[in-house]
Design brief:
Length: 265
């Protein structure tokens, strides 16, 4: 979208140093928002992300928080920092997440705890900290990046599926609580999105099953996506942009699928 309808608004996107989060941050900056990034990664990758978003916003590095999404106090400090640095925090995108795959009987306790903390509880702590100022200003958008796994399950992903289902439930509860205000809370539920991390899974699958990478992509990785195509980062970012528009004011408490038909099965 070419119009700068987010001019003057402040946005924080967690887990935005790469992948979906970075794509959303870029879209928001192009729409005129002041964007703060957050996430882990190699220092040079974080620097590149800050420079890219900063250039879109008019020069200099984009603001950045190194807050640990597994620590409530760190999250609260990040929200306060965003309010101060951006002038106001009008858009909160909870995108940070990690993954681990294992049969439930072998699932390490520490992995379960980390995934629940980062993928679900961080959303609660960020919303709790950001919501009072949004309600006071009578303006705000909360967007939780859930997953198709927030609506359906797959084997060996017990913590991830539980966390993402929790995110969808949290989204609905917050939406009902704030329904009479101009603030909204929604979840985006993508299927497999084309990111470097996801694309890196294709070659090992091809080698494991002795098939081509194209077959591995369609028959193994995207087995649940009827269209057999990646969801593009830009598609998710466009949905996030739409939710920030004034015309989306009545979209509240929704879990919006963008998954090539996955949950239609």
């Amino acid at each position: 979208m070419s119009d700068r309808f987010l001019e003057g608004q402040g946005a924080l996107v967690t887990g935005s140093t790469s992948g979906i989060g970075l794509g959303i941050a870029k879209a928001f900056a192009l729409a005129g928002a002041k964007v703060m990034l957050n996430g882990f990664g190699k220092p040079e990758e974080i620097a590149a992300a800050r420079a890219e978003i900063g250039a879109i916003m008019g020069g200099g590095d984009a603001p950045y928080s190194a807050a640990d999404m597994s620590k409530p106090a760190s999250i609260r400090d990040m929200i306060a920092d965003a309010e101060k640095t951006l002038g106001s925090l009008d858009i909160l995108v909870n995108n940070a997440g990690i993954q681990f795959v294992s049969p439930v009987q072998d699932f390490p306790d520490e992995k379960w705890d980390a995934i629940i903390a980062i993928n679900m509880s961080s959303n609660f702590h960020a919303i709790k900290a950001a919501l009072p100022a949004m309600l006071a200003r009578k303006r705000g958008r909360i967007i939780n990046v859930a997953s198709a796994h927030g609506l359906v399950a797959s084997p060996f992903k017990s913590a991830y599926v539980a966390a993402k289902h929790g995110v969808v439930g949290l989204t609905k509860t917050v939406a009902i609580e704030i329904a009479e205000s101009p603030v909204t809370c929604n979840a985006i539920c993508p299927g497999f999105v084309r990111t470097p991390l996801a694309e890196a899974q294709v070659k090992p699958l091809a080698e494991k099953f002795g098939i081509s990478e194209e077959e591995a992509l369609k028959e193994k990785l995207l087995v649940h996506q009827p269209n057999k195509r990646w969801v593009e980062v830009e598609d998710v970012a466009e949905m996030a942009l739409y939710l920030c528009r004034p015309q989306a004011g009545s979209v509240n408490g929704s879990a919006l699928s963008i998954d090539g038909g996955w949950v239609a099965n």
